[in-house]
Write a structure and sequence with these properties.
Layout lengths: L1 H11 L4 H13 L4 E2 L11 E4 L6 E4 L10 H11 L7 H7 L5 H9 L10 H23 L22 H12 L12 H6 L5 H7 L24 E15 L5 E8 L4 E6 L1 H11 L15 E10 L4 E10 H8 L2 E7 L5 H12 L2 E12 L4 E5 L10 H11 L4 E4 L4
Parallel strand pairs: 1-3, 6-8, 9-10
Antiparallel strand pairs: 2-3, 4-5, 4-7, 5-6, 7-8, 9-12, 10-11
Amino acid sequence: YPVEFMAATLTCDMLNSDKVALFVHECRELGIVVLPPDVNVSGGGFTTEKGADGQTLAIRYGLAAIKNVGEAAVEALLKVRRSGRFVSLFDLCRRIQGLNRRMMEQLIKSGGCDGFGQNRASLLHQLPIAMSRGSKKQESQALGFRDLFADTEEEETPALPEFAEPLKLLYEKEALGFYVTGHPMDQYREELQGYGLKTIAEVKLFGSYSQAVEEPVPFFGGEGRGGDETHVRIAGMVAARKLHRTKKGDRMAFVTLEDADAQMEVTLFSEVYLASMALLEDPPAVEGAPAVGGRVLIISGKVDRGEEDTKLLAEEIVDLDMWRQRQCRALHVTSDLLFLTEGVLEQWFQLLSSHSGGSCWVIMALVGDEAVATLRLGQAFQVVPCQTLLEGARRLFGSKAVCFNSVLT
């Protein structure tokens, strides 16, 4: 009963977010789906339920494991829920006493209120009004009064656009300690595969792959697991770091690198660590906003396939933009021909101009009513491939219409 066992294990350590993150990662390694919390479904601890296919067992995240949501509040929620499901955020705030804003924010950010049919940005925007009206409703009930306008109050709160996916995931990690409904690395998956880089899971399972791996190199001249090492390149974000000093006093580091599917420990000896210290730090906040998703790193090194786990001994670390300048050959954009108005073209050429001077070609697929024309812009429009250019182009043409590629076609 692996699903039941992992649910019980998670519940035993649900107040330790580091252990919860570790066990959830273990569930994913075992192919066990961990569902996000839900105020209408979750228990206090982790529970099992049928997955999306109606047959396979999955684990539902426990409400008491959400950061800053106390057990007393969870017990109150579960007690009130016995009389009927919560139909909206306003309903939730009206029926439960003793809620505080921090707790409610964490419930929303974790995905616990997604079942109300509104996005998380709208729910967070509505929260102050919902809590205020819920408090007044409870006061009126305590005095024996009836609120005649309770059923119409939600119509006054407009919906907002959802948070950008990276920010939504960042808030989710803030509430849960890790990502559940997605991962910031998801947006880079196809691009990284195009560069020949493989996932951490692939390296841990099979070792070496195509362009991601050079010729196998014996380590210490050994055979078997202890000496089974090859050169590889992987991509991921820093999930944890631990600094260390050697007996000689040299600084080194142990880093946990994660992608959308798995994690791997990476050892950085002194020379590599000193050369890449700045890349290991969290990216700075921009205009007071939190850094979203962390920095994507490309790490080259030797695989150390031990008895219990596979690790990487780092030889070189670069960030994704540095790697793009080495490997990216084209920025591909797909657009409806009618969308390219004079105003759009002006914005587009201004964006390209602000990133000019590189060797990356711009290739546009122009979609008409009966045909698609592919156009490669001239050398004067070659750009430096970077994240700010990618984000600017996606804001203009849409997130699925723009991508970097290692080939021109």
